[in-house]
Amino acid sequence: MQSLFLGLTAALLWGLHDFTVRKIGPQADAAALYLVVLAAGAVLLAPIAVFNGGWASLTLPVIGLTLCAGLAMASAGYGLYQAFAIGPVRLVAPICGAFPLLSICFAMLRGAEAGPLVWLGALAVLGGIAVVARGENDTPSKGTRAAVAWSVLACVGFAAAFGLLQWAVETAPDMVISLIARLAACGYMLVLIAVQRIDLKPALAIWPVLFGLGALDVTALAAVTVASGFPRPEFASVASSIFGMVTILLAWRFLREPMTARQWMGAVTVFSGIAVLGLV
């Protein structure tokens, strides 16, 4: 029961995070917004990582994996913020949330076996996304195509980031690895901002909101991590995977984004498939 509660808490927090990104996305450049959120998360995570210790276990290969994870995290977050700034949530959320499907693929590349349950979950995810997408206009607009492209980048980036982080924490503390990855992602975003000469002022003007987003992200991650100390920790992973459905519900209720019955069915199918993959 504790693991399930922690997973649902994480889903609510991540869902609220993505909903807020959708609301504030047009106010500043995605890179500037995500940089502040990453920095806020790192500030909140630093005391925990320092207190837990384990820094001596870091090796060059582990640091290399973590830096690569930071690059994937930066790409994923940038793609997610760009996608939600364009919208609609009903299309963006299922694609961004489908990263567990790619995570399973990465695990298979490392030698894991795929049983019937994996293929059932994969079919549900892909089929559900197709149903949601077909509910959009018959002729996709330029904005819709861009939203899909950024969502795919986010999906691939999150799958790569989580896969690399899980690989790194096999030999080093998870909080230390998470902090280093976030700091690396901050560095990559700073390079992007410098190259593109992006103005940070609009993002800094709403820093309290962005600090709150960083807190939501770190707290959700901590909830899933804490669940590992309770019976059936897999329940937390499965429950947290429905965060995209929370975002869709919030956008439908508060932003008045329309949803057809077919799109509701497709969204439920996607996140049901993600939940199945979480059981693998």
Structural class: mainly alpha
Biggest β-sheet: count, sense, barrel? none
Strand content: under 5%
Instruction: State the end-to-end CA separation.
Output: 19 Å
Tally of strands: 0
Q: Helical stretch count?
A: 13
Q: Stretches where pLDDT falls below 50 for ≥5 residues?
A: none
Helix content: over 70%
Q: What sort of overall outline do the alpha carbons produce when their principal axes are compared? A: globular
Order of helices and strands: HHHHHHHHHHHHH
Q: Your description of this structure?
A:
The protein has 280 residues and is mainly α. The two termini are 19 Å apart. It has one domain (2-278). The chain is built from 13 helices and no strands.
Quick recap:
By secondary structure, the chain is mostly helical.
Please write out the topology.
Blueprint: H1 2-24, H2 30-52, H3 60-86, H4 89-96, H5 99-109, H6 116-134, H7 142-168, H8 174-196, H9 201-204, H10 207-226, H11 234-240, H12 243-254, H13 261-278
Helix pairs in contact: 1-3, 1-10, 1-11, 1-12, 2-3, 2-8, 2-10, 3-7, 3-8, 4-6, 4-7, 4-12, 5-7, 6-13, 11-13
What are the key terms here?
13 helices
